[in-house]
Amino acid sequence: MKTADAVLDPLADEDGGFDVYAKDCPARMVLNRLADKWALLIVKLLKTGPLRFNQLRREIEGVSQKALSQTLRRLERDGLVDRRVFATVPVTVEYSLTELGRTLAEAFEPLADWAHSHIREVLAAQSRYDSVSEAA
């Protein structure tokens, strides 16, 4: 099995960094993950502390059980979320942010604040655009 360094080294540029504009840059996977609305909502909720699967599902309106499960699995694989299983009947599963996940939550906070503060302007711009497009 290849180590992470063995996989990444051939893709690094001459400075040892990565160019997200390059086709094969592994950082694009991270950007793809960040573009997933469910992932960001989960990370934002878990910032407040550990939550169980059904708590997350109740808090995030519109997410299906399948989408939540798949997103949590990807976040766990990426090292952003920890999954803890309790031997109860039925089995209880709790999710929490890892240290890496907490850094993402901190980075995401300003973006969430921006979205909340500017949603009216975005909706107004969409409405203007749609009315011009319909008239054309």
Description:
The mean pLDDT is 88. It contains six helices and three strands. Strand 2 and strand 3 (92-97) form a beta hairpin. The longest helix has 37 residues, at 99-135. By secondary structure, it is mainly alpha-helical. It has helices at 4-8, 27-34, 37-46, 53-59, 65-77, 99-135; strands at 51-52, 81-86, 92-97. A three-stranded antiparallel beta sheet has the order 1-3-2. The protein is globular and about 60 Å long.
The oligomerization state is: single chain
**Major sheet size, sense and barrel closure:** 3 strands, antiparallel
Element pattern in H and E = HHHEHHEEH
Number of helical elements? 6
Q: State the secondary-structure class.
A: mainly alpha
The overall pLDDT, averaged over residues, is 88
Which residues form runs of ≥5 with pLDDT under 50?
none
Computed over alpha carbons, the radius of gyration is: 19 Å
Strand content: 5-15%
- End-to-end separation: 58 Å
- Total number of β-strand segments? 3
Helix share of residues?
A: 55-70%
The side-by-side strand order for the widest beta sheet comes to 1-3-2
Tertiary shape: globular
